[in-house]
Design goal:
By secondary structure, this protein is an alpha/beta fold. It has 2 domains: 282 residues, Carbon-nitrogen hydrolase (Nitrilase/N-carbamoyl-D-aminoacid amidohydrolase), CATH 3.60.110.10; 30 residues, no CATH class. It is built from 8 helices and 14 strands. The strands form 3 sheets. The protein has a 6-stranded mixed sheet, with helices on one face. Strands 6-7-8-9-12-13 form a 6-stranded mixed sheet, covered by helices on one side. A two-stranded antiparallel sheet has the order 10-11. Helix 1 links the parallel strand 1 and strand 2. Helix 4 packs parallel to helix 5. The longest helix is centred in the N-terminal third of the chain and has 17 residues. It is globular and about 55 Å long. The model has no long low-confidence stretch (mean pLDDT 96). The structure holds 3-methyl-2-ureido-butyric acid. 3-methyl-2-ureido-butyric acid binds next to loops.
Length: 315
């Protein structure tokens, strides 16, 4: 049997004036707790090093540079990598990245980084579905300017061989889209790591507010079940700078069942020992893609619509 003992390290609010070393100290406490509880891997949420800064409008994007990491690890985050190697535990970290390419073009990205038990980086994922709006909208009680602060990733959803299994990553709004899981499912994913910051007030349609917790679990449990994979959904919850955000961090089995759930809205570690071979209970039966997914059917629909089918679906 192949097992990953995974820790989902929910964070409570991070204040605007909380320094990186203060936040990293919180992450290190959760990491040590995870190591004590036998975890192979500890998963932190989206933008785990700062407050959720896209809630504020600014006129000049460079005024936000201090929210982004220009190197990883950098001086403030190196202790996470050192401690991981010392304890022999991997981690997954969400943060904002500021970089410049060879042509001198600046990039601002919402990143999830997977680091191995040796403290070495395994993979980097750039959030694909960037929600919210590009420009300040004064009617909102608070802004959700992710589309101003981040560019979308165009590499899709990869799967990496790590921790003895097949690991994928997604960030927050990505979890609401079925193709997120299916793209990884078609690559044999066995554990999907997802971090989120989800305000409980959804300004464009407040009738959805009361359903925030339901929708959160609905999409991740469906994604797990329909693709025969574990899903680890990790929140930054609680009231951060006046904005109340969903907690309810969960670890979900390929059956779609929740096997561990946070009970607070603050810093809290939940742990589950995941038998990766349990994925086959679903991927060898109901969701045996090779037997039942009927690529010819999708090919036919694509042809009718003049759409190029994804690689691997063509006959
Ligand atoms: N950080 C996010 O991506 N939040 C979105 C909100 C805006 C709906 C989410 O899907 O949870």
């Amino acid at each position: 049997m192949r097992h990953i003992t995974v820790g989902a390290a929910q964070l409570g609010p991070i204040a605007r004036d909380e320094s990186r070393p203060e936040v990293v100290a919180r992450l290190l406490a959760l990491m040590r707790d995870a190591a004590d509880r036998g975890c192979d891997l500890v998963v932190f949420p989206e933008l785990a090093l700062t407050t959720f800064f896209p809630r504020w409008a600014i006129d000049n994007i460079t005024d936000a540079d201090h929210w982004y990491e220009t190197e990883m690890p950098g001086p403030d985050t190196q202790p996470l990598f050192n401690e991981a190697a010392l304890l022999g535990i991997g981690f997954c970290l969400g943060y904002a990245e500021l970089s410049e390419d060879d042509a001198g073009v600046t990039h601002r990205r919402n990143i999830y980084l997977l680091v191995g038990k040796d403290g070495e980086t395994i993979a980097k994922f750039n959030k694909v579905h960037i929600p919210g709006h590009e420009e300040s909208e004064s009617w909102r009680p608070f802004q959700h300017l992710e589309r101003y602060y981040f560019e979308a990733g165009d590499d899709g959803f990869g799967v990496w061989r790590a921790f003895g299994g097949n690991i994928g990553m997604a960030i927050c709004n990505d979890r609401r889209w079925p193709e997120t899981y299916r793209e990884m499912g078609l690559q044999g994913v066995e554990m999907v790591l997802i971090g989120y910051n989800t305000p409980l007030h959804y300004a464009p349609d407040p009738t959805q507010n009361a359903l925030a917790g339901f929708h959160n679990h609905l999409v991740m449990q469906s994604g797990a079940y329909q693709n025969g994979t574990f899903v680890v959904g990790v929140a930054k919850g609680g009231i951060e700078e006046g904005v109340d955000s969903l907690a309810q961090t969960v670890i979900i089995a390929p059956s779609g069942q929740i096997i561990a759930q946070a009970i607070t809205t603050g810093d809290e570690l939940i742990v589950a020992r995941c038998d990766l071979d349990f994925c086959k209970t679903y991927t060898d039966t109901l969701f045996d893609f090779e037997h039942y997914r009927m690529p010819e059917h999708y090919q036919r629909i694509s042809n009718q619509r003049g759409v190029t089918p994804p690689e691997g679906d063509a006959e």
